[in-house]
Write a structure and sequence with these properties.
Layout: E1 2-7, H1 17-30, E2 32-36, H2 41-51, E3 57-59, H3 68-71, H4 79-84, E4 88-92, H5 104-121, E5 125-128, H6 133-140, E6 148-151, H7 157-165, E7 169-172, H8 175-178, H9 180-188, E8 194-196, H10 205-208, H11 216-228, H12 232-247, H13 255-262
Parallel strand pairs: 1-2, 2-3, 4-5, 5-6, 6-7, 7-8
Length: 267
C-alpha cells in the first residue's frame, strides 16, 4: 500500500479525461491512499464527485492561498463545507509565487478562518508555507490544533526545526531526488513525522517534464529512502505507520482508511 498524502485529483480535469480515468484506475489497482486537497469550493465539489467511486481517495476542503483574494469575502458561507470535510487543505500563505503583497492580508484572513474551524472541530490541517514559513509558524501559535501536516516544506532549517518541535508531520515529494535543499530537509525530518506526496498532477512537472501519475509515489518512496539511507520497503512501512499514527485517534478519519491500515504492518 502506498500513501499519497498531498495531491489534487480534481486537477486531472485540466489534463484530460483519459488521464483522469487512468489515474483513478491506477489508484484503485495499486491501493494508493490518496488525500486530495482542494483549491476552492468548486475544487472540493469536484473532489467529492471523484471520490464517490474510489474508497482510496479522501477529498478535503481548503482554499489555496493563490485563491484567497477571491475567497475572502465568502468565508461566512463556508460553514456547511467546514463541518462536512474530515480535514482541511490546502491552506496557508504564499509570499514566493504571489508577488503582490496587497494579497497577503486576504491570505491571512482565509488561513485564520480555517484554523479556527480546525481548532473548534479538532481536525487536521494541511499547510502551504512557500516563502512565508515564519509567518505560518507564528499564526499557528494562536491555535490549539490536534494535527498539522506541512506540505512540501522548502524553507529555512531553523523554522523546520520549530515546526518539528511543534509536532508537525511533513509530506515529501520527488523533489527529494533533484534538489539539494529538499534533500537536506528530507534527511532532517524525524522518522515518525514523515509522509509521502506527489502533488499530482502538476507538482512534479519541473522535475520530470510531464504530469505526474499516482504511481509517481513509488518513485518518491525510492528517492526519499535513498536520501535517508534506508530501503524503499522500510520507508514505505514507516510512512504507513506514520499515517496510522496520524489518523488512528482521529474521529474524522474515514473508517475505510482505518480498516485498511489496521491490517498493514506498522514497524
Amino acid at each position: 500500500m502506498w500513501i499519497d498524502a498531498h495531491t489534487h485529483i480534481d486537477r486531472y480535469d485540466l489534463v484530460g479525461e483519459a488521464m483522469l480515468a487512468s489515474a483513478l484506475a491506477e489508484i484503485d489497482a495499486h491501493r494508493i491512499l490518496t488525500l486530495s486537497n482542494s483549491m476552492d469550493v468548486a475544487s472540493y465539489v469536484r473532489n467529492l464527485e471523484l471520490a464517490e467511486a474510489c474508497p482510496f481517495i479522501l477529498p478535503v476542503f481548503g482554499v489555496h492561498p493563490w485563491n484567497a483574494v477571491e475567497a475572502v469575502d465568502h468565508l461566512e458561507d463556508y460553514g456547511p463545507l467546514l463541518a462536512q470535510s474530515p480535514m482541511f487543505g490546502e491552506l496557508g500563505l504564499d509570499y514566493y509565487f504571489v508577488k503582490d503583497s496587497a494579497a497577503y492580508p486576504a491570505q491571512v484572513k482565509v488561513l485564520r478562518r480555517f484554523l479556527a474551524a480546525a481548532e473548534q472541530q479538532r481536525k487536521t490541517v494541511s499547510l502551504h508555507t512557500k516563502g512565508a514559513e515564519a509567518d505560518v509558524l507564528e499564526i499557528l501559535e494562536d491555535y490549539d490544533l490536534p494535527r498539522v501536516i506541512v506540505h512540501w516544506y522548502s524553507g529555512p532549517l531553523d523554522i523546520l526545526d520549530a515546526f518539528i518541535a511543534r509536532g508537525a508531520y511533513f509530506t515529501v515529494n520527488i523533489a527529494a531526488r533533484y534538489s539539494d535543499a529538499i534533500k537536506a530537509i528530507t534527511a532532517r525530518i524525524p522518522d515518525d513525522r514523515l509522509l509521502t506526496e506527489t502533488d499530482n498532477p502538476g507538482g512534479a512537472r519541473d522535475f520530470i517534464d510531464r504530469f505526474g501519475t499516482p504511481l509517481l509515489v513509488r518513485d518518491v518512496i525510492e528517492a526519499v529512502a535513498e536520501v535517508r539511507g534506508t530501503s524503499a520497503a522500510a520507508l514505505a512501512q514507516q510512512v504507513q505507520a506514520n499515517l496510522w499514527s496520524l489518523i488512528a485517534g482521529d474521529p474524522w478519519a474515514p473508517d475505510a482508511w482505518k480498516a485498511l491500515l489496521e491490517h498493514e504492518p506498522h514497524g
